[in-house]
Amino acid sequence: MNKVAFITGITGQDGAYLSEFLLKNGYIVHGLKRRSSLFNTDRIDHLYQDPHVDHQNFYLHYGDMTDSTNLIRLIKEIQPDEIYNLAAMSHVAVSFEIPEYTGNTDALGALRILDAVRLLGLEKKTKIYQASTSELYGKVQEVPQSETTPFYPRSPYAVAKMYAFWITVNYREAYDMFACNGILFNHESPIRGETFVTRKITRAVSRIALGLQDKFYLGNLEAQRDWGHAKDYVRMMWMILQADKAEDWVIATGKTTRVRDFVKMSFAEVGIELEFKGKGADEKAFVTECNNPKYQLEIGKEVLSVDPRYFRPTEVDQLVGDATKAKQKLGWECKYSLKDLIHEMMESDLKLMTKQQYLEDGGYSTLNYFE
Ligand code: NDP
Ligand code: GDR
């Protein structure tokens, strides 16, 4: 019998990779997608199946994390063996703009899933994965951060995720449910949302190299993140639900890198070396070498400035995870290094931006939001 999984947030970065992974492993996959005025299924279009054909194993259902009746009905119909609750308003900076909605979706959304399973009497059948986050550590109390490090959330997003973390633990203890938190550190990929810093950088560097844009703007260049590849991390989500016991797990590479160095490494992928000058809000980056004849950038050209608009009211300065428990107990390992990740993201964005170049050369405009 094929196992049945229900993924909320299936249209997001992790939902797309997790769907691929579960389908390859023989699962029947159901996903929750939001109604939107434009198509929002770009990342999973390659998995789409015509609902009129037999033997379908990939299904999408309309729904929303703020709608309990919808979630209860879907879980009742699907009778999932595993639920992966990945849906969230996942942008930390945006959560300061829409804190109530963030709480409703990210905190109460997790409760709605847990309580639907309980209400439907599926406690012994359905295992639940909750997408918890390294943002819980926020104002860092300990380096590196592990399952025993105290939390100190620093944004409405992280506070909402802290509720989701504890309600998952509480339902596990109160109702003996197989409900687990994966405390995942940042993970990226070529399909990462365009407004997260890594993808913002690889898109901008590609456009600058191709001559489509002169420069770009970032916020805090000093922040340090433990960046892994999303493909490695979704495999771990599945492993967490296959463990003997329901527990909470830190997933991280154990290495941390400054935003500034991510910028340097991305430019280095196209043979461009940079020098950073100034400090804080006045920092800028200039080209010092251009070693690839394909990309002709003037030496001394300014390609990056800090714009304080991207600073956050409260920032998380440094994250670096200790995934010893997952490595020892579940045998998890990262297959991708940061260099591999940046290489893959740059390769993909250079291709995408080359398409934009053709369009622009043909007289069509292509939008590039500075978000
Ligand atoms: P994305 O932002 O790429 O995807 C978020 C998904 O949630 C999208 O499918 C989005 O739908 C959906 N969603 C948002 N709001 C709602 C709602 N109200 N109802 C239903 N669906 C909704 O996130 P990632 O894939 O990067 O992350 C997956 C999860 O893991 C998130 O919960 C995130 O907070 C968490 N996380 C992510 C980490 C990372 O580094 N990527 C690290 C740690 C945790 P739509 O496509 O329509 O917008
Ligand atoms: P993060 O990711 O907040 O860690 O949350 P993001 O890529 O948004 O920021 C990382 C760091 O880069 C700094 N930064 C900028 N960030 C953005 N987005 N845009 C900028 O221009 C910019 N300049 C500097 C930020 O200040 C920050 O320090 C991600 C999300 O996926 C969450 O859902 C997840 O829980 C955590 O990772 C783990």
From TrEMBL:
Pfam families: GDP_Man_Dehyd
GO molecular function: GDP-mannose 4,6-dehydratase activity
Cofactor(s) the record lists: NADP(+)
Cited Gene3D superfamilies: NAD(P)-binding Rossmann-like Domain, UDP-galactose 4-epimerase, domain 1
Listed InterPro entries: GDP_Man_deHydtase (IPR006368), NAD(P)-bd_dom (IPR016040), NAD(P)-bd_dom_sf (IPR036291)
Source organism, top-level taxon: Bacteria
Keyword annotations: Lyase, NADP
Class in the EC hierarchy, top level: lyase
Stated family: Belongs to the NAD(P)-dependent epimerase/dehydratase family. GDP-mannose 4,6-dehydratase subfamily.
Functional summary from the UniProt entry: Catalyzes the conversion of GDP-D-mannose to GDP-4-dehydro-6-deoxy-D-mannose.
HAMAP family: GDP_Man_dehydratase (MF_00955)
Protein name in the entry: GDP-mannose 4,6-dehydratase
Gene assigned in the entry: gmd
